[in-house]
Amino acid sequence: MKTLRLTTPLLVLIAVTLSAQTTTYKLSDGTSVALPDLTITGSTLDCTVSYDASRGVYRYAYTINAPATNLVAVQAFDIDIMGKHTRTQIDPTLAENIVRVRQQLQPYSAIPVGVTVPDPARWRAGIGRAGNLFASARKSVLAVAPGTSATGFVIESHLPPGIRKAIISPSRQPWLDIMDNTPDNGAEFLEPHPDERQFEVTTTAVAPAELSDADLFDGGGQQPAEVNKFLRYVAPTQSRNKVPANTTYTVIVYYGATINAATFSATLDGVDITSRFHPLPGGADAVKIAIGTATTKLHLSVDGTKASGAKGTDSDTLTFLPQ
Questions:
Q1: How far apart (Å, rounded) are the C-alpha atoms in residues 168 and 166?
Q2: How many separate helices (H) and strands (E) can be counted in the chain?
Q3: Contacts 24+ apart (CB under 8 A), 234-240
Q4: Which residue intervals of the chain are DSSP H helices?
Q5: What is the structure's pLDDT at 104?
Q6: Contact at 8 Å (CB) between 166 and 78?
Q7: Model pTM score
């Protein structure tokens, strides 16, 4: 961020016009300035996952939600998509509408993805040097204003879903507006200086992941162990889970390669919700369930074939305890 240089008369103006939610920063000339907080607490990055079996492609569709309590717009988000193995980064089988830079920016161990944004003239997107997918409004006026949401952000990948680190970033336009209208008297910020990163929301999002057996929870209960692998989970990671009340929870289930999909069933507190899942041998699902104020039980069951050719049934009950 470029240096702010302020004069005393402008400080008086700022004190009158800025929101009460501000932070005061000291300057090298002995004065100080109050800058509006770039608070976007409560912003979320929701994801709906679908699977195209004919192409072997998972589709991750994202919505940015900016609650009315945000003090500024949401400017950008990024999601970790690093993998564990080296791959060719451009996959022509994956749909996208962004323009890729010519030079290789992302590490070769990033998960190859196709990226679509709602409007390339309004949003830029790509894969960064740290193996992160990023999307950012090209101008602050195009950012996601408080009390609104934005859809149309899509990742395609051949890899199944996991829980990945995500960062949602605020617009710093209120600071830039002050900078553009500040006379230059040579004053500079002392430490701690303004840094929009302190207002970022660090959260998680469903996104492509390269997971090993050790990363998956088998649900417990069945013997032998190979039967217990007909249904395994990225989330949750244990049978009993404390979760926030009056919210939703995304269950991510991986199906064993030898399951009989026709035998799969799912109930939520005794209500049949089998149709919300799409079991395929070797596939995965990410399904949102509602969490109220009472204990919620999700029961999943599927038959499969063991290495010996014998049949077995994996049956798991996942309990959610609202807090």
A1: 7
A2: 2, 19
A3: 234/161, 234/162, 234/163, 234/209, 234/284, 235/163, 236/318, 236/320, 239/316, 239/317, 239/318, 239/319, 240/319, 240/321
A4: 8-17, 173-180
A5: 64
A6: yes
A7: 0.89
